[in-house]
Amino acid sequence: MTADLQLLTTTAVSAGFIHTILGPDHYLPFIMIGKARNWNVTKILMLTFICGLGHVLSSVVLGMVGVFFGVGLEKLNFIEASRGNLAAWALIAFGLVYAIWGLRKVYKNRKHSHVHAHSCGVVHSHEHGHTSDHTHIHEKEEGKKITPWVLFIIFVLGPCEVLIPLVMYPAAQTSVSGMLMVTAAFGITTLLAMLSTVALGTFGFSLVPLKKIGLYTHVIAGAMIFLSGLAIQILGI
Predict the structure, then answer these.
(1) CB neighbourhood size of 57 (10 A)
(2) Helix or strand or coil: residue 212?
(3) Which residues are bridge partners to 113 per DSSP?
(4) What phi and psi values does residue 127 have, to the nearest 5 degrees?
């Protein structure tokens, strides 16, 4: 390995770690959705891995096309920036819709009193909710099918902004094998950073007593995802 390639590999590892840690969209959606839906750690990490792989590969494929077909770096950066903007808005929309859906669940599950007067003169009241277990099962199954797909699509749309200009194009000047090596270093580091952060965040949340907020977990999850997307869009993190 040449000195230049070694430096690029170190840069790729550092960039993969830093861009993951600084981007709350790389871990917050998985932690919050997993907590709201009471998913086990294995399921959360599996979804994180699949979405992270799509996230990295989408930029890798674009970078490969750029390198082998001689597409200018400026044009690729424009495409990546456009993808990033679209992904941020998609995350904002997803968080907002999910929070509204959570509020709807809270409204449907709210308890209220009914007063009953009997012919014998006895009057009593009782509390109940209108959401049955049967309805709850169908809503849970629907969420299981839709939510992972939405997250996957958002992550495929989302670019690894630093990968192409900082790692792939400079490495391509040395050799194809060198470009593949530094790209793999970036991708593996990104995935490991995502998985580690999500695992730590999930473990941390498991220590926090959330019984008091009850059904509001979905609302909070949606709000946090919405805010993370907003932070990316406004602050560019």
Answers:
(1) 13
(2) coil
(3) 127
(4) -105, 145
CA–CA dist 27, 83 (Å, integer):
19
List, in sequence order, the alpha helices (H) in the chain.
3-21, 28-36, 41-69, 73-109, 133-157, 169-172, 176-206, 216-235
230 CB neighbour count, 10 Å cutoff: 16
In 10 A of CB 171, how many CB atoms?
A: 27
SS3 175: coil
∠ at Cα 146 (144, 152), nearest 5°? 105
The DSSP code sequence of 114-136 is EEEE-TTS-EEEEEE-S--HHHH
pLDDT in tens, 46-85: 999 999 999 999 999 999 999 888 888 889 989 998 998 9
Specify the length of the chain in residues.
237
Cβ atoms of 91 and 229 within 8 Å: the answer is yes
Helix (H, G, I), strand (E, B) or coil at 74: helix
Could you tell me the pTM of the whole model? Answer: 0.82
Cβ(190)–Cβ(16) below 8 Å: yes
Residue bearing tokens 């999930």: 202
CA-based nearest residue to 158, from 224, 91, 228 = 91
Residues 30, 33, 34: CA angle, nearest 5 degrees: 75
Residue with tokens 């490495």: 171
